[in-house]
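User: Just a sanity check before I run the rest of the batch. Below are the structure tokens for the first item. I only need the designed sequence back.
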């Protein structure tokens, strides 16, 4: 599909198009590279809601995965090794030279997606991932539909079908800041997560396999509270998977967040049993190449994948490692079964919640 506008040209000389959708008081720009949400705006709120670049070039070298679709496997795979049906596989080790991160160096965030449908309030992108890419078995056909709905809702639906059993754990990797688009930090944003347990990670950010209750820990967000919390004089940093439920289910609320000064609120709903909340990120440059994001500019993401710079996105309770036993759902897709995840993010300005 050739509508939309040319956003830029890749280093390989390929044009990348940008598609605008509008609905429910929101306007979003989506680019073909990585299926990235390049801009998201709420009527009546001047600042952008997501962190982004205003040019294509930074996206080609971006290490923070701003706004991209992540696959074939979101998060980390210990040693890049996994076993399916008795066969052992080795995926590319692009994290610390030891583990696989977000599907490898040529994950879905760096691939060109085809726009198959585009309407006023939606855009559908598709990607064919060949057998053996980054070490993953079997071809995978992936579809992502972004849709804007009333009231102020961004819906993300990810589906995938495969030719043979393979890992599949998809997510959307936007960073949200509900106050100023990332000029300031999000430590005074308030956050609520409907999670009674989380998955501790080791020093290399690999889940240990333990499912730990959030009671009496800095990871208890069951009651809305600011992200600002210190431990031994240091701000607590969050990069854990929070467990919402033991299995996938109907669309339900996973999180709520509110900007410290704007009054803008966000709800995150998902079909998935886990949410990844990241309270830090060393993001490089913003829409203005001369300015730098602060270390805590914002993000929260639901796994199914409001600020790591507050970011929420879809992923499973197994945004862990597929070879780490944690009692979470198996991230394996099989022929004849359509892997499907839905995430809904609603934004609006309303009175503070107590």
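Assistant: Here's the designed sequence for the first item:
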């Amino acid at each position: 599909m050739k509508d939309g506008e040319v956003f830029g040209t890749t280093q390989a000389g390929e044009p990348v198009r940008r598609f605008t959708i509008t609905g429910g008081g929101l306007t979003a720009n989506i680019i073909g590279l990585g299926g990235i949400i390049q801009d998201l705006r709420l009527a009546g709120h001047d600042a952008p809601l997501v962190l982004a670049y205003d040019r294509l070039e930074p996206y080609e070298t971006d290490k923070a995965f701003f706004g991209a679709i992540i696959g074939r496997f979101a998060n980390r795979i210990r040693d890049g090794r996994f076993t399916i049906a008795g066969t052992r596989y080795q995926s590319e080790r692009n994290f610390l030279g030891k583990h696989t991160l977000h599907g490898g160096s040529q994950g879905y965030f760096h691939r060109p997606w085809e726009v198959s449908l585009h309407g006023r309030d939606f855009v559908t992108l598709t990607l064919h991932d060949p057998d053996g890419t980054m070490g993953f078995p079997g071809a995978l056909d992936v579809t992502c539909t972004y849709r804007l709905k009333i009231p102020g809702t961004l819906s993300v639906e990810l589906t995938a079908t495969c030719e043979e059993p393979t890992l599949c754990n998809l997510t959307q990797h936007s960073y949200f800041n509900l106050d100023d688009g990332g000029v300031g930090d999000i430590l005074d944003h308030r956050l609520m997560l409907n999670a009674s347990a989380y998955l501790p990670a080791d020093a290399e950010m690999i889940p240990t396999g333990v499912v730990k209750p959030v009671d009496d820990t800095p990871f208890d967000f069951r009651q809305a509270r600011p992200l600002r919390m210190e431990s031994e004089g240091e701000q607590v940093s969050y990069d854990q998977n929070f467990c919402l439920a033991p299995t996938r289910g109907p669309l339900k609320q996973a999180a709520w967040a509110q900007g410290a000064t704007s009054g803008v609120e966000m709800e995150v709903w998902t079909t998935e049993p886990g949410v990844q909340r990241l309270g830090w990120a060393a993001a490089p440059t913003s829409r203005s190449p001369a300015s730098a994001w602060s270390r805590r500019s914002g993000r929260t993401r639901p796994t199914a994948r409001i600020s790591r710079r507050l970011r929420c996105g879809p992923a499973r309770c197994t945004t862990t490692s597929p070879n780490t036993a944690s009692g979470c759902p198996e991230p394996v897709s099989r022929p004849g079964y359509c892997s499907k995840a839905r995430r809904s993010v609603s934004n609006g300005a309303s009175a503070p919640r107590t």
